[in-house]
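Figure S7 source data.
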Amino acid sequence: APPVRRICCIGAGYVGGPTCSVIALNCPDITVHIADINAARIAAWNSDPDPVTGELVNLPVYEPGLAEVVKKCRGRNLFFTTDIEKAIEEADLVFVSVNTPTKKSGMGKGFAADLHYVEASTRLIASVSSSSKIIVEKSTVPCRTAASMRTILEANARPGLHFDILSNPEFLAEGTAVQDLQNPDRVLIGSLKTKEGELAARRLKDVYAHWVPREKVYTTGLWSSELSKLAANALLAQRISSINAMAAICEATGADVQEVAHACGLDKRIGPNFLKASVGFGGSCFQKDILNLVYLSESLNLPQVADYWKQVITMNEYSKSRFAQKVVSTLFNTITAKKVAVLGFAFKKNTGDTRESAAISLCRYFRQENAFVAIYDPKVPEAQIWLDLTEPGVVDDTKQVKEQVTIHKSVQSACKDAEAVVIATEWDEFKTLDWEAIYASMKKPAFVFDGRAIVDPKKLRQVGFKVHTVGQGPEIVDPIWA
Ligand code: NAI
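Tokens for the predicted NAI complex:
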């Protein structure tokens, strides 16, 4: 494999877009084409800057700092295209960064990864290539997918061509993608332990070496690399479910989960990060990757392992339903015809992504209780919210959704005449709201349910609110001290 001069990325989504934009930024000597079958998405990546501010405000993915990176590189060594075949044909190295959602039907339904986008990309690479290439799995895939890709390539490619397959899972977190890509904790590259495999891994390492210290690039075998991505997400999600399980105990006892998390996190073996109790995790990856791991374990005849990881998801579902139930029971056991303001719809702050967002589940619970739901999010487009709330199979009655749900352009408007405010996403702007004004416009008693523990309950109580913070028990006043 020669040094990499031209890169093609198949898939211009949340991973392909930011990842390969950052490669283009750091590697001015490499030409990067990001290709996608979704023409609207490519058009958005190629959209014009705002005529007044000059900023790229219409990119399909919102990430802090991303617009600046794209602006700097686009048209220089970074191109977005729907001409996938040409982009593949010209490349020395192809990232496969397509979606790998949970299968919705057939064998492994609800658990296994749907690999047909990966396979379609692989077949396309085989059919259009007239030169040898390095193929890199960027998508999160089950262990041993690289072997299937190689078989497909070898069976379909022109004679004499050689393809090296690498696994290079992506560890970026949405909301901090650019920062994570610029300064990753590690870059993982898996390859076959053959001479060619190791040379291909070195070529990819040379790309990252433009900006990542070489000691941060860890090379392993293919299967370890593939499994490490599933393992890392399972461990992260497990930490959230673990602290959320503690939150339930805290709420029942009067302990405070923030204090418990802090006390535990001081132990070096545990560490302080990723111990924040919440209404439950969301995002396109955690649940999907754990389900995938569960399926893998079951197919390897390891049912105890499968059950162990399944419990992480069960606990997450419980966190969401427990929170919704808390809202209903606190509002005197009925929210029928009451207005509930939901602040935040994205699955976490600093992203417009709503996939598997806890807010979707909360809105569904509130709707089932016949409440009026008023939603505000600073970044999620209105059309996306409607799509999430009326997705076929989730809610069948679009008309009724529109009767029960309103989408607002400000917090103040969402909260007007509401009985309760539910904080579903930890957007920074919710920390500095004018709570006095919000209180004045609400029905009384006015409730705040903080699903992210981001506002100070004492301050809100001074304003007059009744407050529930996830993981905080009621302030129990012991009669001895009263
Ligand atoms: P996405 O859905 O945002 O993007 C995937 C893109 O691939 C879509 O735009 C789709 O049109 C395109 N695509 C599908 N088939 C294609 C084909 N045959 N030819 C050309 N384009 C095609 O998905 P996202 O979030 O970027 O995820 C991609 C992969 O990365 C998944 O396997 C995911 O598990 C993994 N991942 C995601 C992370 C995240 O934070 N979203 C983080 C780390 C890994």
